[in-house]
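Blackboard transcription, Thursday session:
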Amino acid sequence: MQSVAAILHADLDAFYASVEQLLDPALRGRPIAVGGGVVLAASYEAKAFGVRSAMPGWQARKLCPELIFVPGHFSEYQRLGDAAIDVLRDYTPEVERISIDEAFADVAGSTRLFGEPAAIARLVRARVRDELGLAISIGVARTKHLAKIASQVAKPDGLVVVDPDTELGFLHGLPVELMWGVGPVTKARLADTGVTTIGQLAQRSPEAVERLLGRASGRKLLDLAWNRDAREIQTHRRAHSVGAQSALGRRPAAEHVYRPALQHLAERIAGRLRAKDRPCRTVTVRVRFADLRSVTRAVTLRAPISATATLTEIAVDLVSGLLRDHPEEKSISLVAISASDLGGATLQLELPFRLRDDGSRPGTRKGMARERADRAVDAIRARFGWEAVAYASSQNAGGARAVPDAFRSLAEKEL
DNA sequence: TCTGGGGTCCTAGGACCC
DNA sequence: TCTGGGGTCCTAGGACCC
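(Written on the board underneath:)
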């Protein structure tokens, strides 16, 4: 092997639930779930009963009658997640954060200062335990994919180092669903052809796997099965899309239902676009019907937009068109907006003939009014917080079932 | 009692241009 | 007069990840 095993994958164990047990000692050792109407996260004690995230609250209670629901300390999750990643950064700047509780790190350049990768992993685990009170599992391997699998195998609260000389032996004994990109559907398709382990997958011909899973997915999966993974750590990743969605329960497919919901989503999205100066050119909406089937509609504009009112109007138009195409659907259970085709972060100059957000020329009465309104709202929110002001029609759009906005923010990626 | 929310990537087909 | 094909952009749907 040419290179050493110097990629770390670090993953905080049952993160949200562990933070709650850290904050309240009475919760330690007990089955708990963050959330209420729906389980946002579960402790290991709750998982032992079959409780999973995204599970409806009533179902979780049925599986585990002693389950304790806690509302969640979202700002603490952010603080402690950041702090744990910062521990990794003390050993290398080559850190790629995947989510609030998970990151890759390349420590190949750090061994003279801090010792072997495995020693660095032990240091990180001990410091996260001592300084933050949290368990973090780490996998160490030559590639990202293998490090990620190793950290999964290491859980709970463990360390697994995969030696470059024995990596295929380690990999091939494991079930296929541990691989990145193998979910329930792919797992079932593979099982139909007798493949349940990564080793069995590796023995299949490329043609057979590509026929089964498609060209790109098949190749990718076979590469991973042979640990051919050339991906490097990416320290600065920017999002390619920004979206938001809102579950509605079961509501009539009528404008008085979806307009306020879309308005609220558009506010959140357009605010993020303006904050990073990354207007979007493509707007996609999704509507989920009562039977959980969902359909999408998209439009790509000639000029990029970031005004809340414009995004709202486009989304409302797309959704009403979509519903006209499905007259048989009388109720909807979710609406979503996604903004993509994002512009660069460079400041846009006021070119005289450039089309504005709303398709009008700059300086028109409509365009100027929208800009003034957005700028005023952005400024108030920057000073007094998001809740300080709302566009009239989006008030109370969330409803009692909604997940708190603070929870949503945790999953947002850097724009 | 009925199933969250924010993202990425891939496939297939059509429109359009050269 | 008929047949062809590649490339790009866009839309819709789906699988997957955390």
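Lecturer's comment: The domain at 170-225 of chain A is CATH 1.10.150.20 (DNA polymerase; domain 1).
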